[in-house]
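Hi C.,

You asked whether I'd gotten around to modeling the 186-residue construct. I have! Everything is below, sequence then structure, no commentary in between.
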Amino acid sequence: MVEQGITRWLQRALKACVLLFFGTVALVFLLGLLLPDHFEVRRTLTIEASREELHPLITDLKRWREWTAWSDDDRELVHEYSDPSADVGAWHVWREGDAGAGRIELTASDIQKGVWYDMTFERDTEPTRGALRYLPADDGVMIEWSLRGELGGPMERALGPVFSWRIGADFDASLIKLAERARAAR
């Protein structure tokens, strides 16, 4: 009798867990149908430096390791750079074992306006487009870092806000490091 009660209780608990799981998946899927099919991240920081001081740090992909938040990762990345590693057409490829690979290629570089790039990951069909624009500021240069990419199906769209939040945090940290690097070079 007791054994039957426990069995019945376990069946009900399992049924509730299965319903909760599939209900959550369905809710995330429906939410993804309502969200945009792209993400866009934009961060700015005014840096007390000239365009002439900042541009070499930004237009040379090898120098990104000096100031981007991703260079803090202690992962075992393999890096490959074009020669030269600066200005239009320059590229940087990174690989990490099972985690995949990515590539950045500079598509425009202007000391007065900024740097534009395309970034692709191993499974991407379309590049994610980014820019580090130089905007006027009273005390130095305002750097506006933006990134825009397409999101696939509903599940990926549901994760879009998480992508934006995480990338935005990396951009904020990177811009602060860029400002520190520019100050140290003075």
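If it helps when you're writing up: Residues 2-34 form the longest helix (33 residues).

Thanks,
B.
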